[in-house]
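Supplementary Methods S3. Complex input for the manganese (II) ion-bound model.
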Amino acid sequence: MDASHFLERRRGLLARMGAGVAIVPTADEKLRNRDTAFPFRPDSYFHYLTGFGEPEAVLVLVGGDDPKSILFCRERNEEREIWDGFRFGPEAARESFSFDEAYPIGEFDGRLPDLLADQPALWYSLGQDDAWDRRILAALNAIRAQVRTGRHPPPLIRDVRLELDAMRLVKGPEELDLMRRAARISAAAHRRAMAACRPGWNECQVEAELLHEFRREGSAFPAYPPIVAGGANACVLHYVGNDRPLADGDLLLIDAGCELDGYAADITRTFPVNGRFSGPQGDVYRLVLAAQEAAIAAVRPGAAFQDPHDAAVQVLARGMLDLGLLAGSLDAVLESEAYKRFYMHRTSHWLGRDVHDAGDYKDGGEWKRLAPGMVLTIEPGCYVRPADDVPPAFWNIGVRIEDDVAVTAGGCEVLTSEAPKTVEAIEALMAGEGVR
Ligand code: GLY
Ligand code: MN
Ligand code: MN
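Predicted complex, serialized as structure tokens:
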């Protein structure tokens, strides 16, 4: 992404802050075992403001009449670069990413008291990371110790995440472009999984098809651990074992999306392992699809965040009664929330850099109103565990259908539309017809 986008975001945050200093560190490298680290992923807030992908870095924004943005990062180091690869170093980072100033990360603690002294506010994510909290408090105490020289620490600490969450909630065109690409790659991965799947395969073999597609299209890693859940495993909402054989006659639920340049896709599709829905599987599937379509139809500017959920629940509750999963009147089922036995999660969450993205869901106690540029998932489901009072034909059927939608001026754009979801389209693809 062009450095100008990050510069614009830093200016946007400075405008929201007014006077004061913001400190936004990137993530720490985390050890996986002994001397081997997990793959590094920058902190989402830090990367949103900088585009800078190296570990051991922190952004300082100084607001007021003469605003500036300062990066602290690793120095060049020939020895380390031979082993671990290229580092920008402060000077090249300043130029490439349009910072006003840049210094070695080793100078951060020494320079911080001067940056914070006599500022009206500190904007920082207190409580997010113990080690960073201690560094910041040490700087505040260092200033406090100089009180007889007339210096004061900022009297106010504000949570910088609140402003950043509001900014991140509405995506810019360059962010939507990346999210479209992440969605297309993820949809292709789901098509690949559908085309490859066959009875007798293991869940892990289908997962390998997804990962193959993500990686070869340039995604660094999945946006979250993929769920590849055959048969009864589909009724375990956070199933990630992905190591059981797939039986002829079972459904397979796949919840998987890639991360591309820091942005997530989040898609669920459910399809028959053998390529043909049985009668009861088709009944539940068509019900969830109808609920999903009703929810998508409710996404438009001015609608409340809760409207798609309410639309999905109406359809699901009606269908659960029609299928004999529930008894009573529709009003009673909605009132008592009896549908939660089979649909126990929510229909949507914000989507962006994080799969469950930043952004409030309510404003002053009221559900947030949707506006162009917001991106949310639409993911109703129906999960039927065996029980004496449930018709056995539906036992162990678990269905979820999840798309990513961007709110537009006229309604919404389904970013993930290239992943087939009608019974007919899925069966045709699995029979070797149609688009792969
Ligand atoms: N894949 C996580 C979710 O659907 O919320
Ligand atoms: Mn989701
Ligand atoms: Mn999902």
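The CA atoms of residues 93 and 102 lie 7 Å apart. The longest helix spans residues 173-196.
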